[in-house]
Amino acid sequence: MKSGGEEDAAPPHQGRNISLLVLSYALNFSVVAGNLATSSRAAFAVYPNESAATLPNFTCFLVHCLASFPLAHLTRTRGYRLVFGVASVVGVPATAVSCLAMAVNSFLLFCLGAVFFGVAQASAQLHRFASLDPRICRPSFRPYSISLVLGGAVFGAFLGPELAQGGSRFSSTIGGEEVYDALPRGVEEEPEIGSVSNYAFATAYAALAIPYLLAFACTLLLKVKPLASQKQQLPSPLKRDDTDEKNEAGCVVEIEPEEVTGKEEDAEGPVVGLSNKSTATCLDDSDASTPTPASPPEGPRSLWRILKESPSVRLSVVTAAVAYSMMILVMTPTPIAMELLGFSAREVTVVIQTHIACMFIPSFATGYLIDRVLGTIGTVLAGELVFLLSLVVLIFLKGTLVGQIAGLGGVGLAWNWMFVSATTLLASSYRKEPHDETAKVQGFNEICVFGLAAIGSGGGGLLLGGIGWAGALLLCCGVLLMTTLYTLKHALPDMGKWLRRHSGEGLGGAEVACQSA
């Protein structure tokens, strides 16, 4: 049996691989940020219809959801390098198709580009699971590893829009106009093929191919142990050596398996182990070679059984899905809601930049918060409470710039705490042996998270037009409140154990004090 220090030993090239993951994810996220900053306006340039302007974003999230499960399975069969290569191999054509769509003024072709972007983004999102893989990061460093990888998105959040803007400026050399100076909202007639605004958006998307190429180079430099070398052959508890020991009576001593069933803890379910229960059986020479019948091994668990037996898997999936979908639902209609409230375009930009900064800058401290201060469940609860408080601020102070900055910034911070802690919890909530459940659980998690994110992306504008901004925020409050209650239900048993243990220590100390007196 390995000691605790051996089990927590750093895998080969840990620092190198984590650094490459941080850089690769930052480059991939820069395309996400650039696309988000450009997509709706580019869609309006080729198809001047406000209700259809967010359709490419919805398509991107929907494809992201559908591609998550097969890509997660591919990581277990072919490894992370191949999957991260998919992000670049598909991402470069995505930028090319979007660039062509702007050049020929085709909305359908632009939506096809969004399909490619969805596949590329689904591949890139698996960076956070790679940062938790035992071949890349030791278990005790997991909260810090995922925090560093997600923190790399801070760099990407500022690089992507700047790169798109730089690409749009290049269009001026071929007779075009900067994308941020083009105002397609004022166009009453359908833009002509090759219009100045279309050239600006086309060159912006062409520039977004650069991060995908650099991320592909980072993928080639990863050094991860092959999957085949990670498979461990579990020893058969009933396998007998040729040199069986005998006791003093001359009887062969056999080790019989004894099933030890413990209380279900988290996702590991019933713990089945072997105790050294020896039985001495006198055997003739003729019986010595008779094999002992072995019980049939347990087969792989279905996804339904994993969810049924693993409350931590359920909690982590619910937390990540609610955090992502509610954040998208609040962020997507914010620019339109602020315009209706009379805010300027510059003030809207400041609020969105603050929101994105608060989403990723705290990642550098979230790992320490999980590991040393609040724990995983405590960080989830803290994020949910901050999310609720931020929504209350937006409801009552929505007409002030300070209220918008504080509210959207708080939503970004809450998303970070909930999403990072939920991902950390998920990584320790399913079995690796004897049947690896990683691809099955991670794929299901990605489908839930980005499926609800797609609904939030498409539903934000509908809720704004149907029940108003305040009504949409109240709906989010209801969802967050139910999620918080569900988290408390999961955390109460652990809180009770903690209180009983510390109260017991206090009583024990008091008894010792009385006896010494």
TrEMBL record:
GO molecular function (one): transmembrane transporter activity
Entry keyword set: Membrane, Transmembrane, Transmembrane helix
Pfam families linked to this entry: MFS_1
Domain of life: Eukaryota
Membrane spanning stretches: 20-47, 53-72, 79-96, 102-120, 141-160, 199-222, 315-338, 350-370, 377-397, 403-426, 447-464, 470-488
Residues covered by region (Disordered): 282-301
SUPFAM superfamilies named among the record's database cross-references: MFS general substrate transporter
Keyword match Transmembrane: yes
Keyword Ion transport: no
Stated name of the protein: Major facilitator superfamily (MFS) profile domain-containing protein
Organism classification: Eukaryota, Sar, Alveolata, Colpodellida, Vitrellaceae
